[in-house]
Amino acid sequence: MKNQLLSKLFKTNLDRGVTVPSLIFIFGVCIFSVLFPEQVNSVLNIIKNFIFINLNWIYVWCVTIFVIFLVFLMFSKYGNIKLGSNDSKPEHSFFSWISMLFAAGMGIGLMYFSVAEPMQHYSSDVFKENHFINRAKNAQLYTFFHWGIHAWAIYGLVGLTLAYFAYRYRLPLSLRSGLYPLLKDKITGKWGNIIDIFALCSTFFGITTTLGFGVVQINSGLDKLNLFPDTGFLYQVIIVLVLVTISVISATSGVNKGIKILSNINILAVIILLLFVLILGPTVYLIGSFTNGLGNYINSFFDLTFNTHVYEKETLPWFYNWTILYWAWWISWSPFVGLFIARISKGRTIREFIAAVLIIPTLFNFIWMTVFGNSAIWIDINVANGALSSLVSDPDSLMFEFLEYLPLSSILSYLVIGIIIIFFVTSADSGILVMNSISSQNAKNTPKWQMIFWGVLLAVLSLMLLNAGGLQALQTMTLITALPFAVIMVLFAISLMKALIIDYKYYEKGISVTTIPWSGKFWRERLKQMLSYETKSSVETFINTEVTTALKELKHEFLNNGINAEINIYTKPLKVEFEIRHKIVNKFLYGVRVSKSKISDQVVSDENLPGMDRSIRYFPKSYFGDTREGYDIQYFTKNELISDVLKHYERFLTIVSEESNEMFVSSEGNDGE
Question: Is Amino-acid biosynthesis found in the keyword set (predicted)?
Fold first, then answer.
């Protein structure tokens, strides 16, 4: 009895081929970073610097390709394709969807860098020879560049690829699925495991380092407000334990509860803080500088995108430590953020997904960075006499020092800490959810102890690294992993494009004109049918007699030709199906059911139109096994019904015989809801 209870409590659906190697690698890197933080960081920095200096062009080209590719898809004929079946609907409201993807995508970084980055660009020695006005413009421009469309294109590509293959063709919601058109069945083997191991380790390292730096900023703020006596390690332990506990509770409650609620609260709190600073700060200056900065960004977009600073050697170190580091950081975070965005994006069209992911967060980031960063620069020039720019080496406390120059500074500081805490929790809970999803191959109804396990692991290892000073080494390790994943993302784009081309051809493939059954032989009968509307009972009679008789006759002929066919009849609601099952490819299905539609009031009242005394019409409507839209078949005779089934069967045989359609006709990959 005791063993059964323990077995029930600790049952698991973790994939050992992914989880065990990932945990070995995670523990190994973290232990070395704790025991030998300086040595490990030194070695990793050598590797990172080699990549950034000699291979920075790979990052530049990859990120540029991602932006161009997504913009192309947004305006292309593929934009109307849904992330799911053709009739699927979004699971979350637009506001909740944007709130959740934004909280996962930017999180604590938005608070950490909103003052620190513009001030660091403004104070950088690279731009010191410029007039302070030009330095302020450059600070805003490069902040926009690093937090704009390029960052969200990285997240968007991964999210779009995973959502497409997971929801449209029923593949697992994991990184391996994004390479299905290239690897085919190999994604279920060692290559698929390697990709998911990479995703799990990258997600864990990225969240651990970000949460570690978030804890330091929260601790700094609480110390500033005299809520904690100092910024010692003991207080960091308290912060981590409390917040990770909340994160685990939120993650175990699911996306629709804890994560969605916290994300909605956080976006509202962020907007309130933004409005406070806008109103209490130099309002007119901020509105004008935003307009100017947006125009400057648009005008400089292509120059910024392709600029490798190869002709400006004095700016190369700045380029490596900012632009290339940011591209590497966003890429290293993209497995986690992309998986989470994909998880919440079912039912959106490709155009809607790209437009929302690229434009809305980008515009909000621009407004946010303008309000906080430009306010800080304006105060530094006009009020603080350089006091803020002198603190750029202490980004943990720079936000709170900036707030001291605004009215209601204490209230604003409390609000900032509250937002950072919620960002901490929303990043951690979505990270726990994603890690559990990767490690369990997106299994449903996973035991809650697995969520708790990942939360505890995050808390313990981040505290160990904080105490030993190993967070920097882990961050460097994360940046190094971005290079191979950038190449994988290019393969994602190739796979997605290949799939979309086949997808579009599959659903747009027409029916030969010569197969249209109307011959004109029964034109008088059809005219009478057109000028009257059938009742529900008459439609049911048509299905039970004409349709069923035609399908049974067709079934008999298929059997004579050695092919097994089945007739399925359902009564509530009435529908009849002709079905041919296959082991390797999708089944062939042709069905007819009772359908109804509302009749226009004009038709009911107009004497010279075929009218009736009720507002609902009933008709027999065909449907198919691949979610294509059916049509009214009420005018078909028995032979024309048989002909209609055969023309769809001919289309089916043509499609399944083409090698390029393999992934779309697999009985395992597309077996319906």
Answer: no
